[in-house]
């Protein structure tokens, strides 16, 4: 069997793919890569299906050893010699991820895709529900699938690295803007990404959003990008492992195409919202 | 029916109550709207998640407004029987709250016909509502950090079964050996929206 061995997992590395869409009615969230565009790019560079299983490393640190001849690449937060560019590893060669200068999540794809056992149609690890393969540990041996398509023959994909510093994303109205005295305060302010953030969501800190009403909201469905506001008034921006339903009002949604960039934000970075053109 | 915005890929349909939610969910499951990739019922709402490559939100809104909710969905689904040992840590508290003895709680819980209204909280955790007299049981004042899997519980107007060990604030009245969620089974969730449930007292 073709395999990769994990020599060091770094702070947090999980297997991710396109997730488990379409199972929300069973209480099963979508999960999948936090930065979908980066994961899809990594697969595209290797001729894989766009939602083939890849590794999602958080703040680098991952060290892998190829047990056979393999072609790999990394995308997202830059911290390897194979960034946005396919790299051939011979049996015994190592791929080392350093510490990215900016961005949070690096995707490591291998030609043929990771072939760990799927759970409910997906190989994604959902850290909220516990579904999917376990978080990577040193010594794990990961099976690699067979290549499906031809190599696209691209040496380097010219895509920008995730930025450090202040990031602005587009926001659309949520279902419960009427729960807030001034929902536009969301777009007027700067929000700090706090250290309480993870694959489930970014906990933001700023001037609290004031409620226009008291009382409780019956839990309702939501998807990634939702800006849910608990009683503290400090929004939570949900990412890949968002719960299927939530009981706090959602004041807005980050434009879906911009959620990927939010998945690259580190604690301490500033996030701003601007109203999306409709 | 009120259709509320939920970003660039989803719409939230707000309805008057659980029966309307079940009826709309049943209609949208029987005749799916093109480009809708997920339909998520909850207590008062149904979320429609779309694939923007296939459809637009305006088209989906038109289609859902033209959808007729199915009537009488409570009672239409398959029936699941769950044998329960009624020895939950909160059974006496629930009885006291309802002003009855514990045997009467068991009699009411096994006597009711329940329907899964929606899922949430964890994969396979169904929120069950009774056909007859509604229940009204407060949550525990402070949640437990560890509720064993299979715990049969009550909170608010709902009953439920914990699919796996988790924290939880519901009142525990008993336990069942039937696994309500199993990733190796098809379907993985036993308690899906619309499924009817009867609790029986295990011998």
From TrEMBL, chain A:
Signal peptide interval: none
Domain Carboxyltransferase as annotated: residue spans: 25-278
Pfam family of the protein (one): CT_A_B
SUPFAM superfamilies for the chain: Cyclophilin-like
Keyword Cytoplasm included in the entry's annotation: no
Keyword ATP-binding: yes
Protein name: Biotin-dependent carboxylase uncharacterized domain-containing protein
SMART domains assigned: AHS2 (SM00797)
Keywords, sorted A to Z: ATP-binding, Hydrolase, Nucleotide-binding
GO molecular function: ATP binding; hydrolase activity
InterPro entries attached to this UniProt entry: CT_A_B (IPR003778), Cyclophilin-like_dom_sf (IPR029000), PxpC (IPR052708)
UniProtKB/TrEMBL annotation, chain B:
Gene3D superfamilies, alphabetized: 3.30.1360.40, Cyclophilin-like
GO MF annotation: an example: ATP binding
Ion transport is among the record's keywords: no
Protein name: Sensor histidine kinase inhibitor, KipI family
Organism annotation: Geodermatophilus pulveris
Carboxyltransferase domain segment(s): 1-191
Keyword Hydrolase tagged: yes
Keywords in alphabetical order: ATP-binding, Hydrolase, Nucleotide-binding
SMART domains, per the entry: AHS1
InterPro entries cross-referenced by the UniProt entry: CT_C_D, Cyclophilin-like_dom_sf, PxpB
